Amino acid sequence: MTRLNIGVDVGGTNTDAVVVRGRDVLAMFKQPTSSDVLGGVVGAIRAVLQHSGIDANHVDTVMIGTTHFTNAVVEAKHLARTAAIRLAGSTTRAIPPMLDWPSRLRQVVDGGSYILSGGYEFDGRPISPLDEAQIRSVAVELRDEGIGTAAITSVFGPVNPSDEERAAQLLAEAHPHASVSLSTRIGRIGLIERENATILNASLRPLADKIVTAFQQAIADLGMDAPMFLSQNDGTLMGAEQTRHYPVSTFASGPTNSMRGAGALSGLTDCAVIDIGGTTTDIGILRSGFPREAPMSIDIGGVRTNFRMPDLVSVGIGGGSMVRFGEQVTVGPDSVGYELTERALVFGGDVLTATDIAVAAGLAEIGDPALVAHLDTRIVDEAVAVMKAAIAETLDAMKTSPDPIPVVLVGGGSILVDDDIPGASRVIRPPHAGVANAIGAALSQVGAQVDRVVALDGTTRQEALSAISDEARARCVKAGAKAETVRVVDVDEVPLAYLPSNAVRISLRVVGDLS
């Protein structure tokens, strides 16, 4: 029988929820995002169940895309003091951990930095032997000081992860209740960015425990005996236990949910997706049905990181964007956000917004059009042109060739532009486009990715790919996928000319259907 899933996605302006059976949308619900994100998610699930008339105990799976962990970093709240343990021998001391972090965030997270023996050269030769006594001593110190989270990073750990793994074992023996994050399971080549990502992940793990437990309890209280999955930022899902260990994987999951939803609703696997919300417009590229990954480091709350993130560009134009006029018309980047239905002119408010412009231009029928009938046509036309030009310019920046490409337009703010977008070969507005983010969450598959640097001297390329593929498949099954459905969807190989031994970086991603 086809699965009955609930998908929820928390955006900056709205929280959306859908009930789907297979790819059929049975009910949907949209409400303003509340300051209490957990309460908002629970309320959205309860409301969409009521709208659908479906018994809660018939739901097979609940998929949630949440901003909890991104908000915690941006606001520097609910983060645990974390020890940064770097295995580097006598190297890297000129740049200690968390050196370039925003001071407010560092004051909250910094639980001490330790540069210890260990680590590897770029060719895999040890910098210095791992000093197990050092690790035990640090573990005892952390235990005595009450610091329960640690991030372990080894120089060139992706070449050889053994030092990190052994250090984690030693730390667990001396400090059994500590939660430890390893950089080789989170970031890529690039010491500082990988270390930063690992520290952020470690600092979020106590919060992840609370959030996952709270979601599971809330789902049970609603009468559902259904497993819960959270959206990852590569367009796939991860189970509750995986979320407890890798909360950073949820960063930017909202836009990727919208992209996956756009692909599912339109039937396209290779296209651009323009997701216009209440505050911003996010533009990304779908490749083989999944969001294209960003090739460079990503800034999260002022911290440079290098773990996988979608390649997205945001522009400050959304349904709630404020419109100002004088010598020239400007739209955004400030927005009335979730107060749109109270402050926009068409709803009886006193703020001229992008939604008012869309109604006045005849692009949408929302609220009371008579309340914007007085707007000067010059202002309306200029505002429409400004929005279209900003979106077209951003789309052009995301393309890899000058040729027009298909564009899928989704999001509640998609009413702001017409179908004549420069750079688009065609514009598709699929059904249920306003809740594409929640649909993307509900239709997602389980995924896993392995990123390794391997030396091809002494082994063949195929043997290396096979070993990495086996590891990724095992992770995917452990995360909740049916073993027989797991397939490779993306392989990226980059020869590392500066490394000996014919080294190559291999990044391999797999997906599978829920078990």
Helix/strand class: alpha/beta
Strand content: 25-35%
First and last CA, distance: 13 Å
Strand tally: 23
- How much is the radius of gyration in Å? 24 Å
CATH architecture of the domain at 79-207: 3-Layer(aba) Sandwich
Shape: globular
- Total DSSP helices: 13
Profile the largest sheet: 6 strands, mixed
User: Uncertain regions: pLDDT < 50 for 5+ in a row?
Assistant: none
What does this structure look like?
By secondary structure, the chain is of the alpha/beta class. Among the domains are: 79-207, Rossmann fold (3-Layer(aba) Sandwich); 315-435, no CATH class; 445-512. The chain is built from 13 helices and 23 strands. Helix 8 packs across helix 12 (436-442) and helix 10 crosses helix 11 (377-398). The longest helix is centred in the middle third of the chain and has 31 residues, at 191-221. The radius of gyration is 24 Å and the shape is globular.
Distinctive features:
6-stranded mixed sheet, alpha/beta, 32% helix, 515 residues, Rossmann fold, single chain
Per-chain topology:
Blueprint (H helix, E strand, L loop, with lengths): L3 E7 L3 E8 L2 E9 L4 H16 L8 E5 L2 H8 L6 E6 L15 H7 E7 L15 H14 L3 E6 L7 H13 L4 E4 L8 H31 L6 E4 L5 E3 H6 L7 H14 L4 E6 L4 E7 L2 E2 L6 E3 L2 E3 L6 E4 L5 E4 L5 E6 L4 H4 L10 H7 L16 H22 L6 E6 L13 E5 L7 H7 L3 E10 L5 H18 L8 E9 L7 E10 L3
Parallel strand pairs: 1-4, 4-9, 5-6, 5-7, 7-8, 11-19, 19-20
Antiparallel strand pairs: 1-2, 2-3, 9-10, 11-12, 12-13, 12-16, 14-15, 17-18, 21-23, 22-23
